[in-house]
């Protein structure tokens, strides 16, 4: 674990107050990342400052492994920029993508709080910057601050709700509904605009518990129905958001097929 200690626990950049070209104070980037983190959105100013004091920035190259399944967890990570893929390997070597972490998201939080080893691999999908809260100082803050514990629990409530939604998609929805729902979440507020899939289709398929062939077939089916447009291998435009929402909500297969027939 020497490489982890050297990589993660050396002193970070100068944390002194920064100023812009006009001499005005600029918020420390570590503090700004923590403030914009969904997990810590319930923290008050004082507690956020305590957390920022123990945290530090770390950077990773595209394709670099940040965590290895089974290794000692170095701390909790908050993504500042870039994206991270979390995945597990079965004893037989089969890979399953758990989820993707974008700016404002966290990973390794449960391992840090519970004190167990990394449950999954974490890989930078592009040049990625994170803020790392080392495990022991983070747990010490938990032990010393009742307010931090309560505020963190509130933030984790939202995280658990997202996890339940993911499990619901995998267990209760068919392939078409899962893909439709994911596309709607990816489009966000960019209604009518084309957007790029931020991950490879094989990784997206694994995340949705589908094969690559099933994902491609489902995307073509949605396009034939007139709900989306496949502009390029990694670029998509949603043409009928309302109808795609119906499909994501579990539109019965017969009605979906009928809609397809009417579109031809």
Q: What is the structure about, briefly put?
A:
45% of the residues lie in helices and 21% in strands.
Layout of helices and strands, plus pairs?
Layout (H helix, E strand, L loop, with lengths): L1 H7 L9 E2 L5 E2 L2 H7 L9 H10 L1 E5 L4 E3 L7 E7 L2 E6 L5 E7 L4 E2 L1 H6 L6 E4 L3 E7 H10 L1 H27 L2 H13 L7 E2 L4 H7 L4 H13 L3 E5 L2 E4 L2 H8 L4 H11 L1
Antiparallel strand pairs: 1-2, 3-10, 4-9, 5-8, 5-10, 6-7, 6-9, 11-13, 12-13
Helix pairs in contact: 2-3, 7-9, 7-10, 8-9
Structural write-up:
The chain has 264 residues and is α+β, with helices and mostly antiparallel strands. The chain is built from 11 helices and 13 strands. The chain has helices at 2-8, 29-35, 45-54, 109-114, 135-144, 146-172, 175-187, 201-207, 212-224, 241-248, 253-263; strands at 18-19, 25-26, 56-60, 65-67, 75-81, 84-89, 95-101, 106-107, 121-124, 128-134, 195-196, 228-232, 235-238. The strands form 4 sheets. A 4-stranded antiparallel beta sheet has the order 3-10-5-8. Strands 4-9-6-7 form a 4-stranded antiparallel beta sheet. β12 (228-232) and β13 (235-238) form a beta hairpin. The longest helix is centred in the middle third of the chain and has 27 residues, at 146-172. The radius of gyration is 21 Å and the shape is elongated. It starts with a helix and ends with a helix.
């Amino acid at each position: 674990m020497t490489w982890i200690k050297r990589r993660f626990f050396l002193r970070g950049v100068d944390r002194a107050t920064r100023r812009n070209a006009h001499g005005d104070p600029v918020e420390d980037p570590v503090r700004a990342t923590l403030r914009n983190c969904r997990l810590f959105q319930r923290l008050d100013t004082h507690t956020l400052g305590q957390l920022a004091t123990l945290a530090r920035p770390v950077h990773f190259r595209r394709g670099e492994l940040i965590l290895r399944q089974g290794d000692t967890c170095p701390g909790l990570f908050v993504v500042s920029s870039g994206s991270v893929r979390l995945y597990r390997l079965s004893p037989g070597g089969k890979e399953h993508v758990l989820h993707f972490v974008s700016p404002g998201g966290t990973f390794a939080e449960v391992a840090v709080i519970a004190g167990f080893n990394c449950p999954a691999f974490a890989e930078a999908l592009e040049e990625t910057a994170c803020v790392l809260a080392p495990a022991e100082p983070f747990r010490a803050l938990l032990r010393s601050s009742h307010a931090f514990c309560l505020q963190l629990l509130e933030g984790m409530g939202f995280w658990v709700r997202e996890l339940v939604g993911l499990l619901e998609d995998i267990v209760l929805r068919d392939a078409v509904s899962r893909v439709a729902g994911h596309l709607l979440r990816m489009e966000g507020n960019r209604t009518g605009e084309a957007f790029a899939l931020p991950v490879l289709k094989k990784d997206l398929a694994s995340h949705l518990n589908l094969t690559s062939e099933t994902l491609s077939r489902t995307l073509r089916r949605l396009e034939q129905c007139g709900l989306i447009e496949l502009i390029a291998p990694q670029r998509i435009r949603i043409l009928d958001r309302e109808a795609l929402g119906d499909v994501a909500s579990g539109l019965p297969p017969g009605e979906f097929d009928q809609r397809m027939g009417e579109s031809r």
